[in-house]
Fold this sequence. Notes:
By secondary structure, the chain is of the alpha+beta class. It has helices spanning about 5-10, 10-25, 35-50, 55-65, 80-95, 100-110, 120-130, 150-155, 185-205; strands spanning about 155-165, 170-175, 210-215, 215.
Amino acid sequence: MITREDIKNNEAISALISRADETLLAMGYTEHAFAHVTKCAHLAAELLGKMGYPERECELAWIAGYLHDIGNVINRQDHAHNGALMTFQLLGQLGMSYDEIGIICAAIGHHDEETAIPVNSVAAALILADKSDVRRSRVRNRDTLKFGIHDRVNYAVEESNLTVNTDTKDVSLVLAIDTNICPLMEYFEIFLGRMLLCRRAANYLGYKFHLDINHVSVL
């Protein structure tokens, strides 16, 4: 079976992740390189693991998280769909079963909020992991005077944690935001759609989604 080690050590995959991030850098986007995809991979696998999903399903979530943004190498527009098609070819060449490829491609193809639907458990975990990765270190523009709203929102986040409570069936994104950098209304202007998608993803997994900002429950 194809594992995360096979994925991490694959030269073609590493090159595509790097080139995809270079594309986004040129477009002025926040970091989408190995730090982001590795965090998404670990979070997605960890979420399903805590919820009691089989080990192999957690591994598929890890792989989906690691590969989910490679479509950006083609274009930011439709990157989820392009990434799913690229993943289909890459994993097929590695010899993964097409049943598992189908699960991963469905997840990658449904992770972008414009077209996303949590169609399986791996997709739901990937949505939650990807949309919760908001942090200051993703901002590459160090000139605060030139910050756009995406830069301000990410830079304002001082702490971000995604937690799971299996007893109460809750998934919570807990944020500490410097409101001097970014008013809460700006956060919601950018992220409300993503947070509502997280709620749908959590519901698919049988959980409720909560958003806590500066110790106040807002969703």
